[in-house]
Amino acid sequence: MKKILTLLMLFPLMSACSTEAQENHNIELPQADASALSVLEHHHSITIHQFSLILKEYLKNYHSSSSSNRLYLKGMADLYLAQNNLFIPNMYEEYNIGNLSKEEQNDIQELYKNCRAFADLISKSLDKNVPISADNKTIKELIQLADDIKSQNPYEDGKTDLIVKMNQLIKKIMNDNR
């Protein structure tokens, strides 16, 4: 009889604990999405900031006669190329976090691909000792776009108009250098 009474007393405690665990699990899902969006925002900001620093260094040191300045720029470009900037945005697309359209996701991924191609162009131009055929004004415009874009979070607000503009400018420079 004591066993049955003990079991009956423990049953409400066990069922109460299991209900609470289910409620906590339901609360964590939006927090996980928020954390994933935070990671995406950080990745976006860092990736575009690094690209902006490479462009600034290019303007400052490309025509420098100092080989150490050119090596520094080459190292920056090569380090940028060594990173896989598409890994985290591809996770966004795979798990469908947030509310971007397919076109907006493609614009963002295209931006990372174009930045990578441009960093490769800088690296190769340094290897060949041939400047990129883009004037300083165009590079400064690209830097300004990068600085404006890095502070945006396109994963939350869906604003990709500057990203599209930057993609077009990079493609134009890349086409002029073929």
UniProtKB/TrEMBL annotation:
Domain of life: Bacteria
Keyword Signal among UniProt keywords: yes
Leader peptide range in chain numbering: 1-21
Keyword tags: Signal
This protein's name: Lipoprotein
Source species: Parageobacillus thermantarcticus
